[in-house]
Design brief:
3 domains, 7 strands, 48% helix, Endonuclease III, domain 1, single chain, 15 helices, globular, alpha+beta, two-stranded antiparallel sheet, Endonuclease Iii, domain 2, DNA-binding, TATA-Binding Protein
Length: 305
DNA sequence: GGCCAGGCTAGCA
DNA sequence: TGCTAGCATGGC
């Protein structure tokens, strides 16, 4: 067993994370609200292991207690902790964002209401890209179902001591080896199946080097990846946000974001993409985070919060 | 039952 | 460059 504690720059709201997961399900993890615990499988030292994350210290002194069932190598421990810091945006300082939002009449209520909400990022870029392609055009519940079926089809899994099975996201090699028909059988559309398998094969063949993207400016990543069939601007913007945690992306084609802007700004009708970009200009350099909070306003409305 | 979902491509003017 | 049909299915 290995234990460690991750200090998070305050504020961090575990409750807000749970609320968001209600409307944006992530079937790779299991939440136990009473014990403020979240369990998830991570690939450590090359094989899946269940990791327990406990959120302590409240919103203003947040820490994440990490516990594994087996004992990773030192390198495995280090990589695990880095991945968790990344996924939970532990090193992001929200203070300047809140100062800035506090000066905006429309955004101040969101900052107050959702204080401590952060991105829950994907563990790696391959997973972020595949999940985003799955999410194109379909509602969030269906996208989560499609992701779950993909995990069951070709993801490795591990059981915890309580008998719950956890899946790690398939490696690119596993998805590259699939046939379109296998995904069609899981109710993927023909195109979605092709896009995902083609992307995985491009990664395996090293026609796309995901690591290299980490150093590139947002617009360069967008220009490079939108050359791929099935990958439009929205998809890369989501990759930059939910895969890398980049702070200033505005997915203006996003239907949920546009609904949210209509709600938050009290507009008579849903803004189109152009109008969304115009409004989003004023959100620089925080467009990703403002988008997150605007999305969450929609989520809260759906939950009748 | 009809319309909408955290879009994208291909085809056409 | 700009516009649109078609894609597939689930949820409301």
């Amino acid at each position: 067993m290995f234990t460690s504690v991750i200090d998070v720059i305050p504020p961090y709201s575990f409750e807000r994370l749970l609320k968001r997961l209600e409307t944006h399900p992530d079937d790779q993890l299991r939440v136990e609200p009473v014990s403020r615990t979240l369990k998830r499988a991570f690939r450590i030292d090359g094989r899946p292991q269940v990791v327990t994350l406990r959120f302590v210290g409240g919103v203003e002194q947040p820490r994440i207690e990490v516990q594994t069932e087996a004992s990773p190598t030192p390198a495995g421990q280090s990589e695990l902790l880095n991945t968790i810091r990344h996924m939970f945006s532990a090193d992001v300082d929200l203070a300047p964002l809140y100062t800035w939002m506090g000066e905006d009449e429309k955004l101040r209520p969101l900052a107050d209401r959702f204080r401590g909400l952060r991105f829950l990022l994907d563990a790696d870029l391959f997973q972020a890209m595949v999940r985003t392609i799955i999410g194109q055009q379909v509602n969030l519940a269906f996208a989560a179902a499609l992701t779950r079926r993909l995990l069951h089809l070709c993801g490795e899994s591990v059981m915890d001591r309580d008998g719950h099975r956890y899946y790690v996201f398939p490696k690119a090699e596993a998805i590259a080896a699939l046939q379109v028909e296998q995904l069609r059988a899981l109710q993927y559309s023909q195109r979605k199946a092709e896009y995902i398998i083609d992307f995985a094969r491009a990664v395996v063949d090293e026609k796309i080097k995901l690591d290299r993207l980490q150093q590139m400016p947002d617009e360069d990543v967008i220009n490079e990846l939108t050359k791929l069939r099935g990958v439009g601007r929205w998809t890369v913007e989501c990759l930059l946000m939910f895969g890398m945690g980049r702070p200033d992306l505005l997915p203006a084609a996003d239907i949920g974001l546009r609904n949210g802007i209509q709600l938050v700004y009290g507009l008579p009708k849903r803004p189109d993409e152009q109008e969304t970009r115009r409004i989003g200009e004023s959100w620089r350099p925080w467009r990703s985070y403002v988008s997150l909070y605007v999305w969450e306003a929609v989520g809260a409305a759906k939950r009748k919060e």
